Amino acid sequence: MAKSTLSFVCQNCGAAYNRWQGKCDSCNKWNTLAEEDTTGATSMPVSVRSRRKGRTFALESLTGKSNDAPRLSSGMTELDRVTGGGFVRGSVLLVGGDPGIGKSTLLTQATSMLARAGHRAVYISGEEAVAQVRLRAERLGLADAPVQLAAETSVEDIVSTLSEGAVPRLIVIDSIQTMWTDTVESAPGTVTQVRASAQALIRFAKKSGAAIILVGHVTKDGQIAGPRVVEHMVDAVLSFEGEGSQHFRILRAMKNRFGPTDEIGVFEMTGLGLREVSNPSELFLSERDLGSPGTAVFAGIEGTRPVLVELQALVAPTTLGTPRRAVVGWDPSRLSMVLAVLEAHCGVKLSGYDVYLNVAGGLRIQEPAADLAAAAALVSSLVNAPLPTDAVYFGEISLSGAVRPVAQTSARLKEAAKLGFGRAILPESARGEIGSDGGLVLNSVGGLTSLVAEIAARGSPRNAGAGNREANREGVTEKNATPARFRRENS
């Protein structure tokens, strides 16, 4: 009988230790080590395993004919966009998202559309009973779809059942944290069980050619729970993002071996399930507050799709020794860099102000082209100067204060013209890349100083007392110029 082997495994990264310790040295997380029984992994003696000889296999050259992987369309355009054109036969996808965000709803709709198209689709739930899945299908109006349901958590039983009859084209496992296998003795949900269960399902997918979607839980930090090695085992990792207070959801590819990783799919949560949004710019700008200081429209690119979104900034006098810097939907380090450039090269003194920046609608912006729109919104809020309502902004700001060009300028301008915008503020060196601007008035900016001076010239005092009016007059000054307070005192 094999000797029982106990080890302490990190529930965040999967690192194993011989003894318990408060902090994991691999991922630097605290209180993530849990005791697990790893007898199943070493049940065979080393002397017996070393006697097995490996088999030889044929090696091939790089030259030769290679065919594209056959894909299966899910029937949902936004889902196919993120996956790269559909599900690849034998691929395994990992879908993560916050609880209640709509992962089960999305996958129920996808399996129902595939089943109605004549393909065998199987939905296996480890968290809900079959009756609960049926209630969701009835609410979505998909009760007549020939989807095969089951409530099972044993991986061996699942593989044995799916191996009989025709091979399913799509299998949904909801969720991987509830699965368990007989090969290990750990409890379901632990790192060892999640890794072993995922490996068994991946072997079945590669052998049978069925596409499998694994649903994963999300931690407080927004990362997919379980060992990070699971993300390396699967072919694609999709993140379903959104906020409970918002009615739309964003599906983003974090990893994709068969397609791009910068595409997004936009859905709207309705009473009848998730509705695809073909033009997300109209959705993000639907509740825009026109004529308010501190708002600027950014023309961004998500993959191959241009997206227009509103950036909101609030600059308020602080009562704290260290001013606050809060960002939602953008990189905080980019905001710190923009604030430093504004103060060093443009004379915008923000050391005594709290700064808040928000991307309206909950979209997360990752490209540096939003620097110019963020800077315009910040200065607009500081000097109480509303920006033109028909203008879009995009451009990257360098540390010297220059505005650098960004990619796909023509696509950004075409999307802005389609939504009725009349002008665009863009980098001066990007004029050579412009194809069709759709009749927009192009205002090129070579440096950030000229844009700040233009916005400050339209500023007006706030109706909040003399202190704020003085702050508005002193907030934006010329570089190396005499402060306004000093001039008034001498006069």
What can you see in these coordinates?
The protein is of the alpha/beta class and 491 residues long. The protein has helices spanning 46-49, 77-83, 103-116, 130-139, 155-162, 191-208, 229-233, 280-284, 332-345, 371-383, 409-418, 448-457, 466-475, 484-490; strands at 6-10, 16-17, 33-37, 71-72, 87-88, 92-97, 121-125, 148-151, 170-174, 211-216, 236-241, 248-256, 264-270, 273-276, 295-302, 305-317, 325-328, 353-359, 391-393, 396-397, 403-404, 423-427, 441-445. The protein is built from 14 helices and 23 strands. The strands form five sheets. A nine-stranded mixed beta sheet has the order 8-7-9-10-6-11-12-13-14. The longest helix has 18 residues, at 191-208. The protein starts with 5 loop residues before the first strand and ends with a helix. 40% of the residues are buried. The model is unreliable at 41-49 and 464-491 (pLDDT under 50).
Helix/strand layout:
Elements: E1 6-10, E2 16-17, E3 33-37, H1 46-49, E4 71-72, H2 77-83, E5 87-88, E6 92-97, H3 103-116, E7 121-125, H4 130-139, E8 148-151, H5 155-162, E9 170-174, H6 191-208, E10 211-216, H7 229-233, E11 236-241, E12 248-256, E13 264-270, E14 273-276, H8 280-284, E15 295-302, E16 305-317, E17 325-328, H9 332-345, E18 353-359, H10 371-383, E19 391-393, E20 396-397, E21 403-404, H11 409-418, E22 423-427, E23 441-445, H12 448-457, H13 466-475, H14 484-490
Parallel strand pairs: 6-10, 6-11, 7-8, 7-9, 9-10, 15-19, 17-18, 19-22, 22-23
Antiparallel strand pairs: 1-2, 1-3, 4-5, 11-12, 12-13, 13-14, 15-16, 16-18, 20-21
Helix pairs in contact: 10-12
